[in-house]
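User: Reviewer 2 asked us to show a designed sequence for the structure in our supplementary figure. I'm pasting the structure tokens here. Could you produce the per-position amino acids so we can include them in the response letter?
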């Protein structure tokens, strides 16, 4: 099975074209040697991949090849999520602090204030 089809089938990407784009942009790596993989890479059982999905750095291991797209409860039979728990905690913390609170009646932020907020959040 092609890599882009596998990533779509185990529900790591919403569409197959998003999975193919991620492969072409270098967001999918072979864990053993660190090389980037093309969407046409043949998936084999036992291989490990590193993926960057938005801000999450995910590591998976292939258990089996699904015949086609599987339901969410059945995904555990086809892959093991080897992502460290600290990575999920980092994303959870980032979501908590991504919300900014403004006092009531202050109004919308000015362009300068908005730039300062963006700079503080993403740098």
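Assistant: Here is a per-position design you can include in the supplement:
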């Amino acid at each position: 099975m092609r890599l882009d089809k596998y990533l779509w089938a185990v529900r790591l990407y919403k569409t197959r074209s998003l999975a193919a784009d991620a492969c072409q942009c270098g967001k999918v790596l072979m864990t053993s040697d660190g090389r980037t993989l093309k969407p046409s890479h043949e998936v084999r059982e036992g291989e490990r991949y590193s993926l960057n999905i938005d801000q999450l750095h995910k590591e998976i291991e292939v258990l089996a090849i699904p015949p086609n797209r599987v339901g969410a409860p059945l995904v555990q039979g086809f892959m093991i999520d080897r992502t460290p728990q600290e990575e999920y905690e980092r994303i959870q913390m980032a979501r908590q602090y991504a919300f900014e609170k403004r006092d009531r009646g202050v109004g919308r932020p000015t362009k300068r204030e908005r730039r300062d907020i963006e700079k503080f959040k993403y740098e």
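For the response letter, you might also mention the following. The chain is about 35% helix and 15% strand. Residues 85-97 form the longest helix (13 residues).
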